[in-house]
Amino acid sequence: MNGMSMTMLVRDAAAGELAGEVEAMRLDEDAFRGFYDRTSRPLWAYLSRMTGDAHVADDILQEAYYRFCRANATHESEEHRRHSLFHIATNLLRDRARRNRGIFHLPLADLREKLLSVSGSGERIEKRMDLHRALDTLDERQREMLWLAYAQGESHADIAKIYGIREQSVRTILLRARRRMAKLLRKEPATGEVSQ
Amino acid sequence: MNAPTCEFEPVVLRAVRLGVADSDLREHAAECVDCGELLEIAGVLATDRREAMREAPLPGAGALWFKMQLRARRESVRRSSRATAAIQGLSLIVALAAAIAVFGIPKIDFPSVAELSALPWSIPLIGLAVAGLLVPVALWFALRRPSES
Fold first, then answer.
1. DSSP label at B147?
2. Does the model's ipTM exceed the 0.90 cut?
3. B16 vs A contacts (CB less than 8 Å)
């Protein structure tokens, strides 16, 4: 079957399938496109760094947008909408962690190979490896919180809402994780601080 | 563990997000352990985020929208067929119950094994009955989708 007829078949099938009312997906396509363009890169960055795997990040990203659209929730603002999306994505990461049972380690050996295969200075690669090694010493929750707070710029209150804990607990967890990361990045010997 | 926070932490975070830290802030970060640490960690993470965002191999918005629509449609069909099957099952049970209530439980005189085995066509008949039971089960296992397993 040539490419053209295949495309036509897919188009016809799509027209047939989409003819009926799809109750769960009420978000307008244009609105979705705009929202996706604004949020997909930061979301992918978050997911890829938390999972250490581009393919897994892709899967979770698509699932997160699907669940976001299906929820069909009303949002007060763009920021609120973005928080909801990151909330869903974080829950998906938590589910994955629960399924994996135990601390998930970032695939550092794969990462080095990937970094070497793309252009980049040796120093930059080493810096990135150091960062990932340091992140790998944290548990999933600490990693996620650090990213959300310091890379993504979410407030402590928003992070507390995502995890269902108090703001003060978020502050404490972040402080511990930050101290640990700083020591590792400066290559100081660890003091044996245990992650929560 | 208490979490001591410096009042300038939000200023440091904002500076990291914007990618600019003025000399006053840098001076403060050099003196304040918390802010120095925060500037370092947040700076490293923000740089890594920028790199990750640059290299993100994202599916197009249109393609993803299309896939989501198809999936929603499929799930909607699956939900409605499940509901239909449940209603059919319930109707069958109600009909059987009504029939039993009206006519009572029928008495059937099953032939004994000895009587059956005396018949010349009993073995092929039993074979057919077993096949009739097993073939649908085998077909179900062979044709079911992997996601149902």
1. G
2. no
3. 150
